[in-house]
Amino acid sequence: MKINAFTTVSRRSFLAYCGGTAVAAAITMPSVMARGDDAPFRAGIACVDITPELPVSMVGGFRDRTATGVHDPLHARCIVLDNGEAQLALVMVDNCLIQRPVFEAAKKRIQEKTGLSPDRVLAAATHTHTGVTVTSVFQSDPVPGYADFLAERIAEAVDTAVKALEPAQIAWGSGAVPGEVFNRRWYMKDGTIPPNPFGATTDKVQMNPPRASENLVEPSGPTDPTVSILALRRPDGTPLAVLANYSLHYVGDTEAAVLSADYYGFFADKLASLMAPAASGKPFLAMMSNGTSGNINNVNFGEAGVAGPPYSRMSAVAESVANEVFQRYQQLEFKDTAVLASATREITLGVRKPAAGELERARAIVAAAEGPDMKTSEEVFARESILLADFPDAVPVPLQALRIGDLGIAAIPCEVFVEIGLALRNESPFKNTFTIELANGYNGYLPTAEHHALGGYETWRARSSYLEVAAAEKIQETMQALLAEVKS
Ligand SMILES: [Zn+2]
Fold first, then answer.
1. What is the 118 CA–ligand 1 centroid distance (Å)?
2. Strand locations in 4-101, DSSP E?
3. Which of 69, 85, 198, 440 is 20 to 30 A from 6 via CA?
């Protein structure tokens, strides 16, 4: 598939879908406004369509799925901040998992186009499970050409936002939506957890247990109900942009075989419509980032589920979160400028590779499988073990902290357990702190050492979970150092 093909689709659908006409206007606005002493702080927004031509592979399940339709288009959404001394760009991409080379290619293009250095850009996947495969996980492999297209599109989003910089005021704060987040790893009655794919019965918790089961004991950890908000408005008071952050894995009540941005896209649309009267026709962009949701989803396991029509759950979640953000927005204290800083550090973490005996068992399982697709979870994880055997013994992991006034943002390239986000916030030197997961790369799940001891899906060795047991502790320690660095 050629890049041109993607480009054609993208151009056609951009104006129609990117948050309505208000946001579409952002790319046609005259470029940089004249700077003056009365406008020390500026912000720019952009929203770029990244929907591919069909059919395409969708990552996010044990078996590959093919999308043959589009429910709602996929986007890369961008906010650029400029305080006259420094710039920062934040980009949220409707995708499940984006590997580091894609982000690095995008950042290289951003630097070429805008001069913004890579450490000043935070780009992350939202974690919609109905996006395009751009990273090999389980039985999905990257859609040819899409990585290059995506990198170019991310760069285009930042370039467009830089060109749209206009005088702005900035605020940050938070609210809470406790009703839409549930811990998905449960302690179960003795002997009721099935053996794991490695043939062991050592798991002490079960991910996504049967709802309302009599075998449920209790969740193995907390949730984080916080909705964090970074908001921008024009000096005339019209809203310009909101970046929100909520610790929810995804919602996922889509139809089969159809691309969707999940609740992240629904949230952006809902908040845009709530803001529309105040925006009075001027461009406004909302974007949702994923917090620390490695063990958090939208399923209330304690109660039996009532299945609604497709998209009804994600729509309801988006509405709850958008309403909360809209209400909190009214109470925010906007400032005329803010300190902008970033710090990055790469750390090296060990890889949990299969031992010789484990590899031998895996090879026997795959050899006996009917194929070509692996069907049972035993087969799927056996194949993963074989692929992981070729991984290096240690991998570099990029970490980043941003400072925006008295707001600290931690960026981690993993599906981060909620305990880590809560701890980072508690120990942060900033009044407000949140973590954006799946940022700047992809290094699988990040359970705490305690959760590794409990076992369960997120700890099972695979290309979706391979960092050493001490990874969470090391990443948390480095993130604290980076937050302190940008604070000073
Ligand atoms: Zn996931």
1. 26
2. 42-49, 56-58, 65-67, 69-70, 75-82, 87-93
3. 440
